[in-house]
Amino acid sequence: MNGKAKILLVDSCYEADSLSQYEFVRPVQRLLERTGFPCQICHISLLNEERLKGCDKVVLCGTALKDNEYLNHLERYTWLKEGDWPVLGICAGMQIIAAIFGGEVRSRHKPAIGLEKIEVVRESDILGPSRKIEVYHIHSLDVTLPEGFISLAGTELSPEAFSHCSLPIWGLLFHPEVRNRWILENYANL
Asked: Which phi and psi angles does 80 have, rounded to 5°?
């Protein structure tokens, strides 16, 4: 073992071992393992305290565009409020974090798909300095900023990225595994 953080990748797709895992979870795994961070994948239906205790950090990976099944099982994510692990939520993962902490997950008038420039409005260890960056979107839901969180990118009314004010929890509405892989490396190196 190289002393780097062990990262648990939580698969929130509609079922364990779905094809969506190959699009939304395994790319995150490949990237982090290539940079020297050991990863383990666990479907949310199989997640337990033992698996959580065996990791140093958690990534809540995204899901397919029309896969919102995770919203019907938010009780599986209540451990997020314990704040024992640094957590990064990607797309659906950010939506889960928002919902668990009292934010609203809401439908967009049309899905966001493709590359878009967004404004990083606050410097952070995850996104770096304030500036515009190009990100990849594939989502049909937005979130409101939960109480106790600050917007890192986008606006207070429509956050593209956020962080908790006191817990090591971050969310991204976009997919850094497609573009901006350096964000995943920043998170892993925290």
From this structure: -60, -30
Cα(8)–Cα(25) distance, integer angstroms? 11
177 is an active site residue: yes
147 is catalytic: no
List the catalytic residue out of 39, 91, 137, 164.
Answer: 91
**What secondary structure, in 3-state letters, does 90-111 show?**
ECHHHHHHHHHCCCCEEEEEEE
Q: How is the beta sheet containing 149-154 ordered, strand by strand? A: 39-43, 7-11, 57-60, 87-90, 169-172, 159-164, 149-154, 105-120, 131-143
Q: Whole-prediction pTM value?
A: 0.95
* pLDDT tens profile 114-151: 999 999 999 999 999 999 999 999 999 999 999 999 99
Does 91 participate in catalysis according to the annotation? yes
